[in-house]
Amino acid sequence: MIPYLLIFSLSIYFTFLANKTPRSSGLFYIYSICAILLPSLLAGFRDLSIGTDTVNYLYYFENSISYSNFESFLTSNPNVEPGFLLLNYLVSRFSQEYVFFLFTVHLIIVLLIYISAFKIRNYITPSWVMFIFLFMMYNESLNAMRQYIAISLSLYAFAIYMNNKKTWLYILFIIIATMFHRTAFICLAMILIFYWTNKFTVRHNFKQLLFYTTIFLLLIIFGQSFYLPLITDSFGGKYEGYLSTNVDGGLSLSSFLVYLTTAFYICYKAWRMSDKIMDVFFISSLFAVFLLLLSSISVQLYRLSLYFFIILILAISYIFRRNSSFKSVIRLFFIIMFIFFWFYSYSYRGSHSTIPYVSIF
User: Fold this and answer.
1) List of residues 6+ apart from 272 with CB closer than 8 A
2) pLDDT one-digit tens code per residue, 56-89
């Protein structure tokens, strides 16, 4: 437990320092490297027993070593996303040590989260983003590595869109994300959210919004016979557990309560603040809440909800940034809630089998 808390604290602190430092300064890059490398190294040097599915990824990495060209490796694993296979293959060209692969995976995840935060730091505070990600999602990412690469890519796509409003760039990065985990297709729903918020406001068109959101979610629920084979059956059932809440790594009551509290609070603030960005966060919160509630009916929907909850990390930071005189008791509440969640879910309950931390040394 101590290694996580130490690395989390240092990474958040270096992120805080980087945000206070001009990008033209060399110190900015030193702080940033430290903030990104520390959690990446922690993931890389972990024992294979850390994370319930860590050892399952070992097969593809070891398998990639035996191939002299990527095309042969790709054709021998037709049911696995090509982006993930390519990552295995490229890493194995540099090193045949699995430690290096684990490090590279989380270097990509943490780097994309970090860059996304700094890309829109005019709107949010990066240290808040890193704090919430590390205490809410980092341990889960040690287990669901493929999906978290896709999730981090989806967040980067969202940050790019917030910067330049280019829909084609957003779509491009979502396509790349689906090459690591096919569940990322749900992020295409954000295009509808972008379109709707550009034309309407939540406060004045709430009934219309609720109608369209309900229709979309009904399509998600009743269209499972179409999209679930793409993300489960096509793997021959091997990865079906990744989408299930019946296995370790699924939805727990603590996750449910924390995610629900966060989403409802964002909805409340979005309704009161009423600006275009908060309208996007409001609808994302609705999607996250509905998918979370419906996960009791269809367990696969929890995994889909994560793509919207990663956006809510930005929403919390945006609210705190916009309200500089915001009541400190509310900020303290969220700090305590996220930290308590980490202790209860990962340390006490042992979710995802990441605590106690065991290194390879």
Assistant:
1) none
2) 888 899 999 989 899 999 998 888 899 999 999 9
